[in-house]
Amino acid sequence: MSAPTPLPTVGHPLPRAGDARMTPEKLKWILGDHGHGREWARVFRIADEDSGRLWSAIAHAALEAPIFRVIDRGSYGVVCGVAFPLTLGTRTAIVITSWHYADAGDAPRPVTAYPTL
After folding, report:
1. For a tag site, which of 24, 38, 111, 114 has the least CB within 10 Å?
2. Is residue 58 within 8 Å of 97, Cβ to Cβ?
């Protein structure tokens, strides 16, 4: 019998971060004008065609980065804020991310991500 998945806790990494998956639609939204595309373009000079490289960098950084906020939304699950330095090419910036757990034991689902300016 395996140990239960720990609850998200401030100061600790996201539980099951290695199992997180980004949908192409969500990544397109994050890099689009309705999401945070302008910030990504300004800070890292990346666009939609760089989406695979961006998700790979975010997923890797989120493995060990500590949670800075946990919000329990009751029957709507738990939302966690995680920030970390991200380097793409020669540029580095702090990236703020939000992750959702619909149910206990789930893998985190990325909600949004944007670089600080």
Report:
1. 24
2. yes
